Amino acid sequence: MWIGTWLFVPFYRVHVHHLDRVPAVGAVVLVANHSAMVDGPLLFGLLRRRSVFLVKQEMFVGPLGWALVRIGQVPVRRGTPDRRPLMALLDVLRGGGLVGVFPEGTRGSGEVEAAQHGAAWLARSSGAVVLPVVCRGTRRPNGARRRFRPRVDVMVGEPLQIPAGGGRTGLTTGTETVRAELARMVRELDQVRSTA
């Protein structure tokens, strides 16, 4: 956890809620909202166990690309059908590991208005639990000036189980379960932040 707190101290005031909910062992699909480029590195640094995230292909260049490969991250081409990244994550899960996925597929407002099927498919295929995590405060509001050490909150939810089977309908239901829980947690965290 020290990486996720100390590394970002010069830039953010990070507050983490319910980190104890992260399972210490076993297969876990961490799903998170995504509103800023720093979300992935922040979550990676906060976790107390090794994790493998899907990272956009464009990041795998130069020294950063070398570092991402060395720490085991998996490149993904957005908008292009390619099962290889999902199969790589499935191997990690079958070995009892933790993988991280941003179901929205790209950065946005972080409200989780839509989600892709990858996370639910991974959970169903591996029997892994789904761990919802939301982050607020990393995205600078449109039109806002540069902020000095803004408050960032990360909230870990209760692990969810996505039922196996059910074909395409079951996958759609599982995906909506993930999306709805993340959206609910965003609203909850926004409420917490409004009273902080």
In short, what is this structure?
Helix content is 36%, strand content 19%. It contains six helices and seven strands; from the N terminus they run αββαβαβαβαββα.
Structural class: alpha/beta
Counted by DSSP, the helix tally is 6
* Unreliable parts: none
- So what's the oligomer here? single chain
Largest sheet: 7 strands, mixed
Distance between the termini: 23 Å
Strand fraction equals 15-25%
Form type: globular
Question: Helical percent range?
Answer: 25-40%
Round the mean pLDDT to the nearest integer and report it. Answer: 86
Topology as a string of helices (H) and strands (E) = HEEHEHEHEHEEH
Rg calculated over all Cα atoms: 16 Å
**Total E-strand runs:** 7
Walk across the major sheet and give the strand order: 1-7-6-2-5-3-4
Explain what this protein looks like in three dimensions:
- The chain is of the alpha/beta class and 196 residues long.
- The protein is built from six helices and seven strands, in the order αββαβαβαβαββα.
- The protein has helices at residues 2-6, 39-46, 62-70, 84-94, 118-126, 167-194, and strands spanning 13-17, 28-32, 51-56, 74-76, 98-101, 129-136, 151-156.
- A seven-stranded mixed β-sheet has the order 1-7-6-2-5-3-4, sandwiched between helices.
- Helix 4 packs parallel to helix 5 (118-126) and helix 5 packs across helix 6 (167-194).
- The longest helix has 28 residues, at 167-194.
- It is globular, with a radius of gyration of 16 Å.
- The two termini are 23 Å apart.
- 37% of the residues are buried.
